[in-house]
Structure formats: structure tokens, C-alpha cells
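Please, structure for the following, as C-alpha cells.
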Amino acid sequence: MRPDIRVLETFYASRRGRLASRMIERRLKTFAPDVKGLRVLGLGYPHPFLDALARDAERVLAFMPQEQGVAPCARAHGGVGAMVAETMLPLEDRSVDLVMLAHALEATDRANRLLREIWRVLDDGGRLVAIVPNRRGLWSLVEATPFGQGRPYSATQLQDLLRMNLFEPLRHARALHVPPFSSRFWLQTAPVWDWVGERLTGQFSGVILIEAQKTTVAATPVLVAAGQLSRRVLAMPLRGAAARQRTQEAVRVAALDRDDTILAAPRPIAFTSRRRRR
């Protein structure tokens, strides 16, 4: 079940939600790869965690599924926010460098299609960082929080799902070790729970953070839906391998057009008065 945008906003505006976002964002800062000069796409409800990635990024996009609803994303500095179909992202192939999933993978019933679409828009060697509720954690059992909605995962399940969809898991970490209580006493003891959880009982954390890299080994095409053929694409300047390939394709097409023009042009036929010998 996917939480509504109003539920997400209400939770992260509460004392418990602010604590959860602060603890996850602090872990994300030490876990996420360097994004200086990169293009970052946040998918799902990435608002509380974009500051951990957006500071040095070239551009930040915040996309939210249409079934969930959309909210302004003030933290995407100079970025673009939009409501999209999660399996039909309005981006060109290989147009972003890093995708962050938050309240996305556990909330969708089309995880394979979602990951394949992310694979399409990621540049070669691009990274995926997902924040997913831990199946063994207490937060996944409390339906009053967004982490108790949808399908939680274990670290092994996440790794298998990513490998199945052409991503190579690189590492994973855990965050949000404090129990999901709303009383002020438990919230004040969050640093102690965080210290104990990282050293002793990390497997019962609230969320799992996992980083994976796009692979191109044995890539298989995904069937294109009928509505996908007419979708609007957000044009972005290409860089790196994608830009080089686009240039090579343009040169090759121009050469083919030039050859076709030469072949199609009328050629003069030379006639001679000499008779052919019998």
C-alpha cells in the first residue's frame, strides 16, 4: 500500500518524523557516493533526504508517483519536481548519474518495471541508492508511520532483487535504530539507540540503505507500453558516453544521407559513335 502525500507530509512534520529523517540523513551523508557535478534524481518521496545529496550536485530532480500525489520540494535547489508515472519516467536514456529511492521500492507493486526504468535513465556506471524499511525492524510493524506501509525487505532480498534487474549491489548500511515510539523520552534516547544499534543489534534497524551500480552485462530489452511511445521527455544535455554515442550516431546518419544523395543523383551516360565489333 502506497502512503498518500498528505500522510507523508504529516509524518515528517511531527517530532517522530523529524527525528527519523535526521537520523537517516546523517547516515546517508556518510554512505552515499560523492555527487559533486552529478545529476541526481530522487524518486518516491525524497524530500527529507535530498540535502544529503543535493549540496554539490549539478542538478537535482524530484519525481513523485502519480498514485501518491505531489508536493513542492524546496530542497531541490535549482532542480525540477514533477508528478510522473513511475514506470514511464520523462527522461532520456542515460540522462542521470545517481537515483535515490525513498518510499518508492516498498510501495510499488511493479518493482521489476520500476528498476528497469531506473536502469534506462541511469548513465553507464551510474549508481542507485535505496532507502527501504527493514523487514526485521520494529518500524515496519507500525502502520502509523510510512515505514509500516508496503512491503519491507531484508538485505538479502534487496540484493537479489537488484541483481535480477541488472544492478550490482556494492554495499549496504542500516539506520533508525530507535524504537518507533512517539513519547519524548524515547526520542531523547535516540543517540544511545543509534550507538548500540550500529555496534550490536544493527539487523533490527528501521531502514536499510543499499547502494548498487548499473551493469550492462546480458542486458535484455523491456517491452514498451503503448502509452510510453507518446510520452513527453524532459530534454537534458548529454554527457560522457551518452554524448559520444549520440555524436557518433549523428555522424553516421549524416554519412549515410550523403551516400544516398550521391547514389540517387543522375549520372551522365557517355555514348560513342564507334560500333561494337561483331
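Helices lie at 5-13, 15-31, 51-54, 111-121, 155-164, 184-188, 190-199, 240-264. The CA atoms of residues 21 and 48 lie 6 Å apart.
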